[in-house]
Design a protein that fits this description.
By secondary structure, this protein is an alpha/beta fold. The chain folds into 2 domains: 3-136 and 171-306, CofD-like domains (Rossmann fold, 3-Layer(aba) Sandwich), CATH 3.40.50; 137-170, no CATH class. 36% of the residues lie in helices and 18% in strands. It is built from 13 helices and 14 strands. Strands 5-2-1-9-10-13-14 form a 7-stranded parallel sheet, sandwiched between helices. A hairpin with a 2-residue loop joins strand 6 and strand 7. The longest helix has 15 residues, at 92-106. It is globular and about 60 Å long. It starts with a strand and ends with a helix.
C-alpha cells in the first residue's frame, strides 16, 4: 500500500507523523512545497521540506514547530553584529543543513537528489520529493507592492493585507522526477491540512500535477485546515479571501475541484456535509485539531479509513 501526501510545513508535518504511526514509513511518499524556499546569506533554505524531514526524524523543535530541538543561535547573533538582517531565524545546527544543500546544488545536484541525501542522513524512512527541481517562488502582493513569501510571513508576520498571490516560475516548471509517477501509482493520495494557497497552491501550479490528480485511480482525500470558519493557524484566511474562496471547508473543496473525492472536516463543521455532497465531495467528520501525538494518530487513522486503506 502506497500513500502519497501533498504537504506544506508545520501542520502537515504533524499529520504525517500521525500517518507513520499506522504505516511503515517506506509506504509513505511526501511531495513537499518549495514555493516558500528562499536564499539567506547565500544559502538555499527549504523551510517546508526541512520541517517535514526534521519532524519525521524526531528532531523537530516541538514548541516552535520548526528548526531543531535544543538549538542555539550564536551564528545568527553574530550575523546581526556584522550588520546583516536577522529577521529569518536560523539556528546553528539548522544552518548545517542549508550549507550542505547549497554546496550540493552548486556542485550540480538537483534539489530532488539533495533532499534524498538529507533524508537518508537523518534516518527518515519515507520518501520526500520537492514538488519541482525548478525554481518556483510564492510572491504576495500587498497594497504597498510585492513581497517574497518569507518577507510577508516571517518579516512582516503576515500582517499586510493581501491583494494577490503568484507562483513565480511555476508555469515553466516541471514536476520533480517521481512526483507524477507516485501519484499515478498510489493506493491513496492525501492533501495535508496545509494552507491551500501558499502551501498546496504552489504544488498544484506545477503543470502536470493537477492532471495527475485528475487521472489517478487512487482516492484523493484532503484534510481541511479550516475549523469553524477560521484557519487553525497562519494567514490562510486572508490568502483564501484574496483568491475569492470562502474561508470554510467549502472554500477548501472549491479550491481543490474537480479532483477532490473526500474532505475530512472537523466535528464543528459537520453541518457543511450536505452542501459538500451536493458539490460532489464526500465529507468525513473527525476531530481535526492535533493537540498531541494521540490526536495526530487519530486524525491519520480517520483519513486512511476515509481513503479505504486503513
Amino acid at each position: 500500500m502506497k500513500v502519497v501526501a501533498l504537504a506544506g510545513g508545520t501542520g502537515a508535518a504533524r499529520f504525517l507523523r500521525g500517518l507513520v504511526a499506522h504505516l511503515p514509513p517506506a509506504q509513505l511518499t511526501v511531495i513537499g512545497n518549495t514555493g516558500d524556499d528562499a536564499e539567506f546569506w547565500g544559502l538555499h533554505v527549504s523551510p517546508d521540506l526541512d520541517t517535514v524531514c526534521y519532524t519525521l526524524a524526531g528532531i523537530i523543535e516541538e514548541r516552535r514547530g520548526w528548526g531543531l530541538r535544543d538549538e542555539t543561535f550564536h551564528a545568527l547573533e553574530q550575523i546581526g553584529r556584522l550588520g546583516e538582517p536577522t529577521w529569518f531565524s536560523l539556528g546553528d545546527r539548522d544552518l548545517a543543513t542549508h550549507v550542505v544543500r547549497t554546496e550540493l546544488l552548486r556542485a550540480g545536484a538537483t534539489l530532488t537528489e539533495v533532499t534524498a541525501t538529507i533524508v537518508r542522513a537523518l534516518g527518515v524512512g519515507s520518501r520526500l520529493y520537492p514538488m519541482s527541481d525548478d525554481r518556483v517562488r510564492t510572491r504576495v502582493r500587498t497594497p504597498d507592492g510585492w513581497l517574497g513569501f518569507q518577507e510577508f510571513f516571517a518579516r512582516e508576520k503576515a500582517q499586510p493585507a493581501v491583494v494577490e498571490v503568484a507562483y513565480e516560475g511555476a508555469g515553466r516548471a516541471r514536476p520533480a522526477p517521481g512526483v507524477a509517477e507516485a501519484i499515478d501509482g498510489a493506493a491513496a493520495v492525501v492533501v495535508c491540512c496545509s494552507n491551500p494557497v501558499t502551501s498546496i497552491g504552489p504544488i498544484l501550479a506545477i503543470p502536470g500535477i493537477v492532471e495527475a490528480l485528475v487521472s489517478t485511480a487512487a482516492p484523493v482525500v484532503a484534510v481541511s485546515p479550516i475549523i469553524g470558519g477560521a484557519p487553525v493557524s497562519g494567514p490562510a484566511g486572508k490568502l483564501m479571501t484574496a483568491r475569492g474562496l470562502p474561508v470554510s471547508a467549502l472554500g477548501i473543496a472549491e479550491g481543490y475541484a474537480p479532483w477532490l473525492d473526500v474532505l475530512v472536516i472537523d466535528t464543528r463543521d459537520a453541518t457543511l456535509a450536505p452542501e459538500l455532497a451536493r458539490r460532489g465531495v464526500r465529507a468525513v467528520v473527525a476531530e481535526t485539531l492535533m493537540t498531541d501525538a494521540a490526536a495526530e494518530a487519530s486524525l491519520a487513522r480517520a483519513v486512511l479509513a476515509a481513503a479505504g486503506v486503513a
